[in-house]
């Protein structure tokens, strides 16, 4: 069954139907043009905060080297990812060790720090 007048309405998922409803009424006080989300007239203009840079991430990870031995343990990585705003810092620490620990000793050394930084950059953390 087709509802009368329904064929004149746009059926796209991204159309605000509150404005489509009034498009056939020329005396309407609302804007009769279709309101497409993400375009003119939306409030999605808020800018997101910037991403961390390599230098900023390096300083964050060095700050969490608690015993100053030049290596990051899983607990230190978990604390660092927690400070970056990770929703799952334990998983991120495990994945970072898997990605960056080339010699398999369970620590991220200075030689492996570049791989850790590239992994953290791929996660896309924002400056808070």
Automatic annotation (TrEMBL):
Tell me which SUPFAM superfamilies the record gives. EF-hand
**Is Metal-binding a UniProt keyword of this protein?**
no
- What are the recorded GO MF terms, alphabetically? calcium ion binding
Q: Which residues form the EF-hand domain?
A: 52-87, 95-123
What CDD domains is this protein classified in? EFh
SMART domains for this protein:
EFh
| One of the Pfam families matching this protein, by short name | EF-hand_7
Stored InterPro entries: EF-hand-dom_pair, EF_Hand_1_Ca_BS, EF_hand_dom
Keyword annotations: Calcium
- Name of the protein described by the UniProt record: Calcium-binding EF-hand family protein, putative
